[in-house]
Amino acid sequence: MFKNKIAVKLTSGFVVIVLISMLAIGIFFIQMFRQYAFDSREKTMLASARSISLAVADSLQTNSQMPGFGGYMRSLDTLTESKVWITDSKGDLTIMSGMGQGMGRGQGQGRGMGAGLGQQGNLNNSGPLPKEAENVIQEVLSGKESVSESFSSVYNEATLTVGVPIVDTNHAVIGSVLLHSPVTGVTETLYKAVSILVVSLLAALILAVGLGIFYSLLFTRPLKAMNRTALEITRGNYSARTGVERKDELGQLGNSLDTLASELGSTINQLFQEKGKLKDIIASISEGIVAFDTSLKPVSFNYALAEIMNRPQPYLKEDMEKDLSNLEIEVQLTKVMDEKKSSQVLKDWSGKKLMLIFSPIVDNNGKVTGSVALVHDISESERLEQLRRDFVANVSHEFRTPLTVIRGSLEALVDGTVEKSEDITRYHQRMLLETRGMERLVGDLLELSRLQSGKITMHKETIHISSLLADTVKSLQTIAEKKDIEIEYLSEQNVPPVLGDYDRLRQLFVIFLDNAIKYSPNNTKVSVETRVVENNVLSVIIRDQGYGISADELTHIWDRFYKVDKSRKGNSTGLGLAIANHLMELHNAKVSVQSEVEKGTTIEVKLPLT
Question: Which ranges carry the PAC domain (predicted)?
Fold first, then answer.
């Protein structure tokens, strides 16, 4: 747990660095101190040895003792803090510090440390000198000063030995002075220095741990704040800030993280806005849109898809998957993603004609991540196209009959087949009649075209509908009298005016009244009634006792060139009700038609009052 904490790592690293540094410095210091201690001891012992050499040179040279020399020799141990050996020119030991006056001269045999020296000091070894010690004595007798530890085995402890030759007035070596000092004093000083170093090291470690923890926390606190801020950002809280106010690199990192949060929040906000706009745009598209993943599973769709597929809102995903499966589009989707090319296909669905356009979804690396299908209901466009074809066919049919009659009549007249004047007049009348019918057809087509294109000019004004209907009834009275049809006009008193174009409203009611008279048998009645209904609406009702229209044909009477069976015997163009429908749209009027075969038809037009 703690090994992953940066504070622990920083503290441990700091302590290790201090420990290694202190150990390195301590070892170097101990070595330097040891070297200094030994060098200082050697210099002191050499100076003492030289002094002794000068003091004993005269005595050895004259073979006599100076006054007080015995006491001087006895105090050499204290003065030099060493054991003093004085040898003759042959290397035989003549004087050892601590001996009585005159003792040692001529004592002992050779350079050995036999019985003759058994009473001469603190020697612990009564055997001969080691070879290394003999070499030291010989080196000194050769006139050289020597520093060695070769006498350690003689005293059974680490001993530092310095040797100085004794030179007479002729500069001849007549003996040697050897000083033996145990190194115990030096090592004790070193031990004390080591103990001081250990204590200092422990104190430094404690201080290092404290400072390491302090500086680790000083560095890790802003890092923890940055970590918390980063976690808040991942949770969508882009207003989170580190609160780090420092001028070092950590402060710069904290400021960068705060800037990142601010910029990221702004960018995410813009992305959400763009996503919302895109969602609104997709939702407002009238075509259905559905996106698929690489496994051909639908992942998203818009609201228009439910309406196109004849499904209620909300469009359940299970129903959508079932409907898309029934459309059998898996092959097309797979092909689109494999070839990375768009394609389209037509499908029939619940009486509708659907066009599906498939396109692959490709990322920046050129990898296909899914596909999207645009579902377009082309039933209405197909219906309009069929209406266009029917319109052309109907116009051609309407023009073909009069043109055939006119051509036949002209051919008969040109060929001279018709010679009698009354026959010629009859042919001329037929041609005139057909020409007028064509003129009426062309006029209706032009009128319908202007109404559909919206290019017609409306001159709206306040109109008293009672006066307009009275004028219309009077103008059609002559036509009605030819069939002994009575036109009855009933109107409420003080009918409010309406806002509209007088000529267009008169044309509207002329079409309805003309149809009522034209398709009613003789000796019947046509009634026109006006009344004000609720919500400020003026109702105009036209009733006849004509042939009537079957229920299955009522929905088609507003189509161009549509004629019920009874009306096909007349000279109607089949465009009147289509024109009337557009005139009502211009005046925001509503119409309802009720009819029964052989019982008559009732048309109610509702106009908004001013």
Answer: 339-390
Rounded distance between C-alpha atoms, residue 368 and residue 162, angstroms: 95
Give the residue among 221, 242, 247, 222 at the shortest CA–CA distance from 231: 242
The separation between CA 438 and the C-alpha centre of its own chain, rounded to angstroms, equals 71
Give the alpha-carbon dihedral of 207, 210, 215, 221, to 10 degrees: 180
Give the mean pLDDT per block of 10 residues along the chain (610 residues). 63 81 83 80 85 78 59 69 83 67 36 37 54 83 84 76 86 85 74 82 82 78 83 83 79 84 85 81 80 87 84 84 86 89 87 88 86 86 74 69 80 81 84 77 69 70 88 86 88 82 84 86 90 84 86 74 54 69 82 86 86
pLDDT, tens digit, 9 for 90 and up, residues 271-283: 888 888 877 777 7
Q: Which CATH superfamily is domain 461-608 in?
A: Histidine kinase-like ATPase, C-terminal domain (3.30.565.10)
Q: How many other β-carbons are positioned within 10 Å of the β-carbon of residue 340?
A: 14
**How far is the C-alpha of 117 from the C-alpha of 129, rounded, in Å?**
12
Strands 352-362 and 368-377: antiparallel
| For the chain, domain boundaries | 1-97+129-235, 285-377, 383-453, 461-608
pLDDT in tens, 129-149: 777 778 888 888 888 888 887
> What pLDDT does 101 receive?
37
Give 490-506 pLDDT, tens digit per residue: 887 778 888 888 888 88
Measured CA to CA, the distance from residue 330 to residue 463 in angstroms comes to: 62
Q: Which amino acid is at 117?
A: L
Give me the phi and psi of 598, to 5 degrees please.
65, 10
Give the contacts of 603 (CB within 8 A, at least 6 positions apart).
512, 516, 541, 542, 591, 592, 593
Rg of the Cα atoms in the chain = 67
Query: At 495, which amino acid appears?
Result: V
Classify domain 1-97+129-235 at the CATH topology level.
Beta-Lactamase (3.30.450)
Strand order in the sheet with 298-301: 298-301, 288-292, 368-377, 352-362, 343-349
Q: Quick one: fold of 383-453?
A: Helix Hairpins (1.10.287)
Residue 562 CB burial class (10 angstroms; 0-12, 13-18, ≥19)? middle
- Residue 557 tokens, joined: 């009477």
User: Do the domains spanning 1-97+129-235 and 285-377 agree at the CATH topology level?
Assistant: yes
For residue 284 the two structure tokens come to 């407002």
Distance CA 448, CA 579 (A): 6
Nearest to 10 by CA among 253, 203, 250, 256: 250
Task: Please give the Cα distance from 181 to 37 (Å, whole number).
Answer: 13
